[in-house]
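Please decode residue identities from the backbone states below.
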């Protein structure tokens, strides 16, 4: 099986991609902060989100609860609790962007106020379709030709 396409797609997002997702990784960002410091950071965060919506760059955003389940195995027969309290960080939310390119999405992520509290913003381009499905479709078309 030729994996060159999928490796290339992962390393170099398609230039036509305008949708990008920021995944917010955080665990205990507020530990050790005073109520005033927490309020300041949350006010900055809300202003950051509001600005992105007003500029038409933010499409959707939601926080996530810290509870969840991991489903794995054939037919989803393995279900376990997660995320785990001992994990270094959890995904606390997401922001879907509609911007010109990957670099612009990264620049937006750099402005997230919780970065100063040790949180991490992961920026990912949204693929127009599943790379594996595209590869299989292309292989089938090639085999049929």
């Amino acid at each position: 099986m030729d994996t060159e396409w999928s490796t290339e797609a992962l390393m170099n997002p398609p230039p036509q991609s305008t949708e990008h997702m920021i995944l917010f990784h955080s665990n205990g960002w507020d530990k050790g902060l005073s109520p005033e410091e927490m309020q300041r950071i949350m006010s900055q965060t809300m202003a950051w989100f509001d600005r992105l919506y007003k500029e038409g760059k933010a499409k959707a955003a939601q926080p996530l609860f810290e509870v969840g389940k991991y489903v794995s195995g054939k037919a989803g027969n393995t279900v376990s609790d997660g995320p785990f309290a001992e994990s270094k960080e959890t995904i606390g939310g997401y922001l879907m962007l509609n911007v010109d390119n990957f670099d612009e999405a990264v620049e937006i992520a750099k402005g997230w106020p919780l970065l100063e509290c040790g949180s991490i913003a992961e920026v990912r381009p949204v693929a127009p379709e599943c790379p594996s499905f595209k590869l299989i479709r292309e292989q089938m078309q090639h085999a049929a030709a």
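Observation: The beta strands are 19-26, 58-63, 68-72, 78-82, 90-98, 120-125.
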